[in-house]
């Protein structure tokens, strides 16, 4: 039988006091962020968070109410206002719509919190009457640790934390991008490039992996890992545009411009299309461009954008279903749910002209 991982064992592993470990795991002040992160990482590696009742006790939660009184209960939707993660977003807003519809059909309420600081989050959270949490988008480890500490069941959408165990819901990014890349190669494209910061999110990295896998399977040389187009800053607001235009100008001069560009999402693809037009490169006449997500603006692009349709509302509904199942059976194995995404063919892709 495996031995229980205690705070003292974590302290011994790191060479710090149990007091420091307790402060770090309870979210209390008095420990610097570097030490707190070391403690959280060590706790995760040793298996502390996977133990039943591993969270710090002290916050009492009311048990689930009978079905007849479920309309008195709510689910917390945590969507920190970072990286354009708002209800007004053409991507994140649709996910929240799916969550809201699923909760409404179950007679449950929804409380949206956009706080991104752990110390403020714990002050505004009243666990009484909260059934569980659905996290939307990027959420810091320290915030997720607070949720785990409280013992609140949670499901994350489009994000996972390597240190805090939870159920997750993603679009099937790897397979979808592999299919899209194979489609482009199938119509003759072999000089293909990926645009998007692979450190930005798990989804962006998975889409890069799908792209790279398709190239390797077809014997096409993959761009280098240190390619500057894989680490562009300004993905949210389009400020990467000038750097991209400089890259295009250099490629035109060297006569090394690709025949197709696959972008990590639609917003990047629409910005890329504008930049190419400003540089005198026609889409798709000179260069094909694809996006990912199928936001509403994708169909209004010039030209309309070939993309991958991510069923955003379905992701929200799946998260609610998983959360309710987790509440019903807290000891079931954690799951990563992948939602199938399909290619939407529009006018931004054509056969290569060279």
Describe this structure in words.
This protein is α/β, with parallel strands linked by helices. The chain has three domains: 1-58, 434 Repressor (Amino-terminal Domain), CATH 1.10.260; 67-171 and 313-339, Rossmann fold; 173-311, Rossmann fold. Helix content is 38%, strand content 13%. It has helices at residues 7-14, 18-26, 33-46, 92-105, 118-124, 141-150, 173-186, 202-217, 241-254, 266-278, 312-328; strands spanning 74-78, 109-113, 130-136, 154-157, 167-171, 192-195, 260-263, 288-290, 307-309, 336-339, 342-344. It has a six-stranded parallel beta sheet with strand order 2-1-3-4-5-10, covered by helices on one side. Strands 6-7-8 form a three-stranded parallel beta sheet. It has a two-stranded antiparallel ribbon with strand order 9-11. Strand 1, helix 4 (92-105) and strand 2 form a beta-alpha-beta unit. Helix 2 (18-26) packs across helix 3 and helix 7 packs parallel to helix 8. The longest helix has 17 residues, at 312-328. The radius of gyration is 23 Å and the shape is globular. It starts with 6 loop residues before the first helix and ends in a 10-residue tail after the last strand.
């Amino acid at each position: 039988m495996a031995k229980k991982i205690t705070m003292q064992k974590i302290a011994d592993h790191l060479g710090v006091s149990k007091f420091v470990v307790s402060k770090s795991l309870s979210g209390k002040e008095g420990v610097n962020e570097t030490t707190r992160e070391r403690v959280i990482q060590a706790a995760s590696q040793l298996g502390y968070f996977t133990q039943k009742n591993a969270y710090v006790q002290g916050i009492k939660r009311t048990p689930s109410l009978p079905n007849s009184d479920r309309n008195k209960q709510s689910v917390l939707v945590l969507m920190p206002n970072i990286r354009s993660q708002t209800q007004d977003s053409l991507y994140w807003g649709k996910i929240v719509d799916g969550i809201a519809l699923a909760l409404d059909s179950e007679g449950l309420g929804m409380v949206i919190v956009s706080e991104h600081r752990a110390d403020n989050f714990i002050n505004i959270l009243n666990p009484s009457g909260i059934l569980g949490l659905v996290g939307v988008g990027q959420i810091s480890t320290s915030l997720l640790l607070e949720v785990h500490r409280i013992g609140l069941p949670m499901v994350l959408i489009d994000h996972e934390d390597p240190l805090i165990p939870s159920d997750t819901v993603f679009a099937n990014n790897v397979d979808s991008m592999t299919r899209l890349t194979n489609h482009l190669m199938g119509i003759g494209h072999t000089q293909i490039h990926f645009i998007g910061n692979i450190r930005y999110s798990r989804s962006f990295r998975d889409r890069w992996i799908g792209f790279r896998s398709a190239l390797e399977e077809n014997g096409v040389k993959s761009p280098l890992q240190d390619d500057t187009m894989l680490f562009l800053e300004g993905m949210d607001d389009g400020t990467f545009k000038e750097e991209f235009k400089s890259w295009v100008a250099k490629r035109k001069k060297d006569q090394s411009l690709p025949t197709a560009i696959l972008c990590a999402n639609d917003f990047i693809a629409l910005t890329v299309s504008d930049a190419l037009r400003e540089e005198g490169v026609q889409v798709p006449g000179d260069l094909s461009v694809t996006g990912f997500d199928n936001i509403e603006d994708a169909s209004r692009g010039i030209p309309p954008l070939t993309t991958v349709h991510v069923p955003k509302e379905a992701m929200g509904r799946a998260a609610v279903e998983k959360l309710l199942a987790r509440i019903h059976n807290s000891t079931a194995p954690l799951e990563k749910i992948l939602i199938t995404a399909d290619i939407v063919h529009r006018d931004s892709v054509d056969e290569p002209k060279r």
